[in-house]
């Protein structure tokens, strides 16, 4: 009845605290609040509970070695293999159960199920192929692949032979691929000839070749997954390129003994954006990372082996690494992968998949939820989503309105929502409610996880009062943390620790991790993350450096100077605004704008495409010549401008403002 619905909406709108549903609590992996105290008392030994979720070839002798901060080591002396933990040990109990349910795009004919047995077999075969190619322990293998099962297979095959992987998001450009391969000295690449997007067979091979052409060192071998089959674009492979399918066929039935890796040996590298133009190669290790992702998957996502767990992220980002591949598979559950987009063939695609597979959890991003909201509740409402038990979000702050929409229309008001704050660098979740324990407050991620010492501080490092804005910090190390930036210890210290630490000290208490996020904390210790305080944008939950985009724009012929800021966007969260000064003799206009957009897509990828390009004769600068980004942000957001009196050129601001508002 319409009246009831209106009443319900009104009640939801006013409600700002939600208790975990009883039915959920009664079956939750973690439901006892004493876990917070226990972890505090037992720290750092509490992390043995995470390590216990894994099988070790050799037991570790030290939980935490903090003798040389911030170069912390976890579970030292221990040995294990990540692929054996994600596959072999599940064979006895779960061999015939699905490890991966893959939903391909074009039609249901393309869906594939890999049981643990089948996944184990193919990982072994591909591991054997990699070995035969000459890939040795510690050789970095780059992957540039869409959402196809061969991506996690290649990752696990690398893990099996002790070769770290470096996955480059398939939506990144050829240039981005080349930079990352060079930075990692990577001589091997696994890619695909294409993928399907909204019904079209898109080519990926040309872009790969273009990228390879720009790699300065010799690339010995390239493996190409033939995803497109008869829809392929008819390429002839080079002599050092091999079809994945041929390699695996040649190795049929091969078995490769998993290499026993030190807990601290590198499992993978993941490049992410920072303040400078150069992406950072975040290094994660085998023991700490795997323990962290397994533990958080269990405690926060409530993953159980019999679940069909669905995370809609792309494996090319950290969320997919930690919470499609490593965490869920370490726990022996069924993890889903979806190749396509949520609006193809219709805007109910995700709900259709959840209904068809009986998904038990959905982990997605606020930007997706805002799009779903826009498309309307009729889409989820027409599907039976009662298999869902828990919902999660990650990547950016979620506004209470989107939270409540998700809660009501997807969760049917009986699934807890976990709003999980973390980063590429943290390896896994850090701040979130425990779904079987804590009250939920829409818009606030929640308390730090047990054993995580996250605090909100002011510029002097003093904790702020409840309700005040400050900076998020993490004051104790944790097993899932990055260990360094690849071959750049100095930048590691500089980027993450220098701000709040006494960098001359070797006392771990003097070292504080700074994630570059602003935050608030309330009287219950709940943290609301406000967003980045450095020059990093968050576009649809994707991290992009303003410097990377600026240098792409300045590389376009006829551009003299550029400044990039984030403007608010109702679906993407933030959108790229580019303010550009042209060189004399070049005309501002559509042609120039198109070339700028193209330049950004070539250097980074379509995700970094500017929403607006604003030509201006000058940029607002301080007397010392620094660009006033705040002002440019205010203009993009159509907000009241801050103080302009310190500007060298205050008049320019009005000019720009007029242009943006279109007057
Ligand atoms: C932001 C993604 C608010 C934050 C896992 C962080 C969030 C950056 C949340 C890391 C959240 C992530 N609430 N903000 N729940 N989760 N962020 O490295 O600014 O791609 O620093 O890792 O995303 O992005 P990254």
UniProtKB/TrEMBL annotation:
Domain AMP-binding enzyme C-terminal: 548-626
Top-level lineage group: Archaea
EC code: 6.2.1.1
InterPro entries the UniProt entry points to: Ac_CoA_lig (IPR011904), ACAS_N (IPR032387), AMP-bd_C (IPR025110), AMP-bd_C_sf (IPR045851), AMP-binding_CS (IPR020845), AMP-dep_synth/lig_dom (IPR000873), ANL_N_sf (IPR042099)
Lineage: Archaea, Methanobacteriati, Methanobacteriota, Stenosarchaea group, Halobacteria
Region feature (Disordered): 1-28, 639-663
UniProt gene name: acs
Keyword Ligase found: yes
Coiled coil start-end: none
Record-stated family: Belongs to the ATP-dependent AMP-binding enzyme family.
Molecular functions per Gene Ontology: 3-hydroxypropionyl-CoA synthetase activity; acetate-CoA ligase activity; ATP binding
NCBIfam families attached to this UniProt entry: Ac_CoA_lig_AcsA, PRK00174.1
Enzyme superclass (EC): ligase
Signal peptide: none
Identification of the protein by name: Acetate--CoA ligase
GO annotation, biological process: acetyl-CoA biosynthetic process from acetate; carbon fixation by 3-hydroxypropionate cycle
SUPFAM superfamilies: Acetyl-CoA synthetase-like (SSF56801)
Domain Acetyl-coenzyme A synthetase N-terminal residue range list: 34-86
Limits of the AMP-dependent synthetase/ligase domain: 89-478
